[in-house]
Amino acid sequence: MRASTLFRRRLAAEWGYQWGVMKTVLDWTIVVYLVIPVMIAAPFVYADMWEHSGLYWSGRLPFTVLFVLILLVTAGGNFRTYLMEADLLYLLQKKEILVPFKRLGFLYSAAGSVIGVLAAGVITLPLFAGVYGMKAVEVLPLLAAALAVKLVFMTVKKFSSKRSVIFAVFVLLTAGAVLMVTNAAPALVGVFSLFTAAAVVFYHLKQMPRSDRWFMKEIEIENREKVKYIKLILTYSMEVEKEPVNQRNRPLLMFRGSKRIFKGEGSKEDGLLELVVKGFLRRNYLTLYIQMFLLTMSAVIVLPIWLKWLVFAGFALFIQSWLKSLFKKMLDSPFFAVVPYDKKLEDPVWGRFRKLFAFPVIGLAGMAVVIFTAIGMIV
């Protein structure tokens, strides 16, 4: 069997598998009421971005913010090889098939990276042109830099699985790219970025014949890539219970000694509130809580005035609804089946819980909206 034939079969099987996953979500109601309207509206929205770019992006922000957004959006993905565990039995022994097969997978992944960066550039071009007055020729070096960052970052992810290392590398690459596009000439940025991207491609193609030691790592990457859409669907599915997993005997940060929050004698209401607060802070809920607040603040800073208030109103309603659902979920814990509590305490404890976690972030987001609205009206 030729490597190209095997690659086409694996690629077709991959497309078929991912399409089957998508079909579990895209039933006829989603297609009719969401997908088709979005497809129809997208060209009109894109045309409106050219006409009224100020409604979609704030000119008070430097263009590097939009550049960093492109880096964030295009940072995902891995170099694919489309290998399987069964290949350990046969394909690993056939270098004349394995090497060109992996080369095709790599080139396909690299081409997908180029297309993804170009797509991000086409989508954001109205903002670069309308808000910052940049021409397409001036945007191309930024896209070349984004492509270089993506290819280098994907290379690091291939050789390291530590999240701390991956995060640190991305931060360093982003900082370096921002410094380069703000201080160097556009032509120099484009040439250096294309040289870096070409060097990454050449490196992978050069070391491919002697990359047997990365065989298991490549299979691990393939397994992750194959189920990434399934994980995404399960993450945002409201019908699937996603219980946080914590195998530590003691919390990492919050209340390691299980000290009391409320001093004094303490009432039953204080006791129940303390249990709920500790449960909230010790689990993954706190991370989601912070992420939602930071995302809202970012939207408040970036979006036009009328959208700032719309986002703030939605956040104020959502955060209270979300906290209420978590509050009820924590009270339904098996722990309270062993240690029951007075049901009359739910309403007062919920009121205090909301004051602790909902009102502060709503207040901060509201202050930010007022401040940035005033700045926008003055400017």
Description of the molecule:
The protein is mainly α and 379 residues long. The chain contains 14 helices and no strands. The longest helix is centred in the N-terminal third of the chain and has 38 residues, at 95-132.
Structure, briefly:
This protein is 74% helix and 0% strand.
Strand and helix layout:
Elements: H1 3-23, H2 28-51, H3 63-74, H4 95-132, H5 136-159, H6 163-183, H7 186-207, H8 215-226, H9 228-236, H10 268-282, H11 285-302, H12 305-331, H13 335-338, H14 346-378
Helix pairs in contact: 1-4, 2-4, 3-4, 3-5, 3-6, 4-5, 5-6, 5-7, 10-14, 11-12, 11-14, 12-14
The helix-strand sequence is HHHHHHHHHHHHHH
How is the main sheet built? none
The averaged pLDDT comes out at 82
Put simply, the count of helices is: 14
Q: Rg to the nearest angstrom?
A: 25 Å
Helix content: over 70%
Distance between the termini: 67 Å
Q: Which percent band covers the strand fraction?
A: under 5%
Global structural class: mainly alpha
Q: Count all strands and give the number.
A: 0
What are the key terms here?
mainly alpha, 379 residues, 14 helices
